[in-house]
Specification:
Length: 107
C-alpha cells in the first residue's frame, strides 16, 4: 500500500493493526494510538487528545493536523453521514466493519 513507507501513523481504530503500523513506519516511535489498549506491548504511545490530563504531544499533533488540513494536505475520508435520528443505521454500518472512512453523525 505504501512501498516507500509513511512518516507517521495515528491509529484511531484499535483493530489490532499496531504491529503492521510499526512495520510500515519503521519504528514504534512513529505510531500513536488513541484506541488500542495493547499499545505498550508494541512500544507504541497511547494518548488522549483532549480533556483533563491530555498529552501535550497529542495537543501539538492536533495543531499540526489542523494546519495540514487547512492547507489541503491532510484529509479524513468520510464513509457516510447520518442525522442523529438515524443513529441506528450509522451503528449498523459501523458493525459491518466495512466502512471505508469515518461515520459522521450530524445534529
Amino acid at each position: 500500500m505504501a512501498p516507500d513507507g509513511v512518516d507517521v501513523v495515528l491509529d484511531c481504530a484499535g483493530s489490532g493493526s499496531l504491529p503492521d503500523l510499526v512495520d510500515l513506519t519503521g519504528s514504534p516511535d512513529r505510531v500513536v494510538t488513541i484506541a488500542d489498549m495493547n499499545a505498550a506491548e508494541y512500544g507504541v504511545h497511547r494518548t488522549r487528545s483532549a480533556g483533563p490530563g491530555a498529552d501535550p504531544q497529542a495537543i501539538e499533533g492536533l495543531a499540526v493536523a489542523a494546519a495540514l488540513a487547512e492547507q489541503g494536505r491532510f484529509t479524513v475520508p468520510v464513509a457516510a453521514a447520518f442525522t442523529i435520528e438515524n443513529t441506528a443505521a450509522a451503528h449498523r454500518l459501523s458493525e459491518t466493519g466495512h466502512a471505508r472512512g469515518k461515520i459522521v453523525l450530524t445534529l
